[in-house]
Design brief:
Number of helices: 12
Strand order of the largest sheet: 2-3-1-6-5-4
Distance between the termini: 64 Å
Strand content: 15-25%
Protein name: histidine kinase
EC number: 2.7.13.3
Number of strands: 16
Keywords: Kinase, Membrane, Phosphoprotein, Transferase, Transmembrane, Transmembrane helix
GO molecular function, one term: phosphorelay sensor kinase activity
Largest sheet: 6 strands, antiparallel
Oligomer: single chain
Enzyme class: transferase
Structural class: alpha+beta
């Protein structure tokens, strides 16, 4: 016949599976987080070059969209003095503008002009050409040269290009309509790598007049003014700022056809072409693998911290589950032992009472000695049952705070003498010595205090060797406290057991505790002491004895 095991059942397979899943998911999460961080940094390395480009060409865009169109404000009447001041401000503010050529242009229908560009009756010719350049960052622009004759080839190309576009535009323009943005950019701007040419935008009435000059034969000779400026751009003089230093280790402006001769596989590079007049060049960005690796690590650390926080939380939950299982298992064992011991405690006196009753019932005649003997047995066993029931009931009432404490002044000298007298009758082989050194009475419940004394005396008797049952009780007063020490010379308690002995149902496993203990005695004492506003502690040495100390405040 198989014996049934009365144990708390724990599904260790499920617990192990949970631990394995958590560890595996942590490793996987760490790997995925690292991989995603690497991918994210590499994608940013390839895409955030646009930020660097936009920031570094912002001065060029400001120059192109804001400063160049200022020429139109003069409506063709920009003279050498005005253009000198304008060129000076441009050359100082924008180092990438190396040289400015100003064409003081006239438009006429005169037949006597033999140079310039002509279309039908319209002649577009330069009255003068002025060149400006900066010799240094803080120097005045250089002197201008006046060209009043045939243009040199180095300057005529830009002028002819603008003149041809302008004449073609005058030929087809509908003067009844406003100029479109597309027409303005195509006609009045000429953008080529390294160079920007611009002609001031005439008013609609001026366009109508220019059209009449081109086709009209009946009007008198007239001359009108236009301004054309050509800006020579050097992209290498753009001021470069690395706006994403965490991703790009080096940035430089290189020709568009530039290819690095560095074959290092650990070098990451990317590039972005410059726009407009800068189009022959590009911004070249590079970083070494260790440099990017440091950025990956920097970004991975917070991600890893988040992952670890989540799994730390899971570990805490797992620990709480384990602790709950452990506590439940321990409580199951304690309660199981409690039921067994309580059953034994009830069964022993009941069996004795039954045997004594049967003997009385079956005896035909009882002598006085037999009657007194059986009466004593019945009385003692009934007292055991009554004490056990009272302990259980009192413990429950104290735990539920349903018992009322009846405080009164207790003379500790008299109280200890009564307890001592009762204990000497109960335990004739127990040597008890009681010393009381207090000046004031203690204001407590005497019944509950008696239960504390009785439990600690019972405990000292039970856990002492048969030939050495000794208990010293000392009651002293220190300032506003009464301190009680119960010192025996018993078997003692191991250090690891001391934290548990005041727990309900807990029993120290030893040869003196196999029978007759429910595990409520010391727990009951602690509840009583705390209930009366005191505190209890224990100090023990294995094989030397145990001392219980109780402290009550003096009201």
């Amino acid at each position: 016949m198989t014996q049934q095991r009365n144990t708390y059942r724990v599904n260790y397979l499920l617990v192990s599976a949970f631990i394995v899943v958590v560890i595996a998911s942590f490793v996987l999460a760490t790997f995925l987080a690292r991989d995603l961080t690497v991918t994210y940094v590499e994608n940013e390395f390839a895409s955030r070059k646009v930020e660097v480009l936009e920031y570094n060409i912002d001065p060029f865009n400001n120059f192109f969209h804001n400063r160049i169109p200022e020429i139109s404000f003069y409506q063709g009447y920009l003279d050498s003095a005005g253009v000198s001041a304008y060129a000076d401000s441009i050359l100082r503010a924008y180092p990438f503008v190396e040289r400015i050529v100003f064409y003081d242009v006239s438009l006429s229908n005169s037949e006597h002009i033999d140079y310039g560009f002509s279309a039908n009756n319209l002649v577009v010719y330069p009255k003068g050409v002025y060149q400006f350049s900066a010799h240094g960052a803080h120097e005045d622009p250089s002197s201008a040269t006046d060209q009043n004759s045939q243009l040199p080839l180095s300057l005529s190309d830009d002028f002819n290009n603008m003149a041809v576009k302008f004449a073609a535009f005058i030929e087809r323009v509908d003067t009844a309509k406003a100029l479109l943005e597309d027409d303005i950019f195509k006609v009045f701007y000429s953008v080529t790598p390294g160079k920007i040419s611009y002609m001031n935008i005439p008013r609609r009435d001026d366009l109508k007049t220019y059209k009449e000059l081109m086709y009209g034969h009946h009007i008198h000779n007239a001359v009108y003014e236009q301004d054309v400026l050509t800006f020579f751009i050097n992209p290498n003089k753009l001021s470069l700022t690395n706006t994403v230093p965490e991703l790009y280790q080096h940035i430089a402006i290189q020709p568009l056809v530039y290819e690095s001769i560095d074959t290092d596989p650990d070098l990451f590079t990317t590039e972005t072409p410059l726009p407009g007049a800068l189009a022959d060049y590009k911004i070249y960005l590079s970083s070494s693998r260790p440099f990017l690796q440091s950025e990956i690590n920097r970004r991975f650390l917070p991600v890893m911290a988040g992952v670890m926080t989540i799994y730390l939380l899971l570990a805490v939950i797992a620990y709480l589950i384990y602790r709950n299982l452990y506590v439940n298992k321990r409580m199951f064992k304690l309660q199981y032992d409690f039921v067994n011991n309580l059953t034994h405690e009830f069964k022993t006196p009941v069996s004795v009472i039954k045997i004594a009753g049967n003997n009385i019932h079956s005896a035909k005649q009882l002598s006085d000695n037999e009657r007194r003997h059986y009466g004593k047995i019945l009385d003692e066993e009934a007292d055991k049952l009554n004490n056990l029931m009272n302990t259980l009931l009192s413990f429950t009432q104290i735990e539920n705070k349903s018992i009322k404490m009846k405080r009164e002044e207790v003379d500790l000298h008299e109280f200890c003498n009564k307890v001592l007298a009762a204990s000497e009758i109960k335990y004739r082989d127990l040597q008890i010595q009681c010393i009381v050194e207090v000046k004031k009475a203690l204001y407590v419940d005497p019944v509950l205090l008696g239960s504390i004394f009785q439990n600690l005396i019972d405990n000292a008797y039970k856990y002492s060797k048969p030939d050495n049952k000794v208990l010293d009780i000392k009651v002293t007063q220190a300032k506003k406290q009464v301190i009680m020490h119960f010192s025996d010379q018993g078997i003692g308690i191991e250090k690891k057991e001391l934290v548990h002995i005041f727990k309900k149902f807990y029993r120290v496993q030893n040869q003196y505790n196999q029978q007759g203990s429910v595990g409520l005695g010391l727990a009951f004492c602690k509840e009583l002491v705390n209930f009366m506003g005191g505190d209890i502690s224990v100090d023990s040495e294995l094989g030397r004895g145990t001392t219980f100390s109780i402290v009550f405040p003096l009201d």
